[in-house]
Amino acid sequence: MEYNICGPIGFTLITIGAVVSMFGNLSSEILSTPRMLYRAAKDRVIPIEIASRVHKKFSTPYVSIIIYVGLCFLFASLGGFKQLAILSSASILLIYLGVAIAVIKLRKKENKEDSELSKDSFRIPGGYLVPIMAVLVILFFLSNLSFNELAGIVAIIVFLSIIYYFGYNVLKK
């Protein structure tokens, strides 16, 4: 085994630090993500009403927890670490892309309204430069995906869009 500058003691400390960091990250994710699913279902952002159920005794969103754990198990069983890391990173980049585009849209809307609230609100220096640069950087990162990775992400988006459309339009009738 080859050690870096820190030697075997530094390698051990870095490994322990990485394990503690990953444990904290996973603990936080397991506790918070099902609650986001629960709230989205309760607010009817997603058309899965069953996900908004709360356990009578423990007051936890147990259906959302079951859905989240089931999806995590499915993804972990079907893909390797590399595929899951790429899917996770690309998904987060797509969310950030949406946020950057929303900043541009909200800035345009705010400029049209020009209300007192908009004058007192926080404004990032540089105007449209920061969100446009963010969009360009995100698109650059996403352009580095291989064709199979990009096709997989597009397939997941299409699949989830079909489920959303089906749940929102068909089940509501």
Please describe what this structure looks like:
The chain crosses the membrane at residues 6-26, 60-78, 84-104, 125-144, 150-171. The protein has 173 residues and is mainly alpha-helical. It has helices spanning 7-42, 62-78, 81-113, 116-120, 129-143, 147-170. It is built from 6 helices and no strands. 7% of the residues are buried. The model has no long low-confidence stretch (mean pLDDT 83).
Helices and strands, with pairings:
Layout: H1 7-42, H2 62-78, H3 81-113, H4 116-120, H5 129-143, H6 147-170
Helix pairs in contact: 1-2, 3-5
List the main descriptive attributes of the protein structure presented here.
globular, single chain, 2 domains, about 170 residues, mainly alpha
The biggest sheet amounts to: none
β content, as a range?
A: under 5%
Individual helix count: 6
Based on secondary structure, the structural category is mainly alpha
Q: What pattern of helices and strands is seen along the backbone? A: HHHHHH
Principal-axis shape equals globular
Query: How much helical structure, as a percent, in the residues?
Result: over 70%
How many strands? Answer: 0
Overall residue-averaged pLDDT value: 83
Q: Provide the domain count.
A: 2
Backbone CA Rg: 21 Å
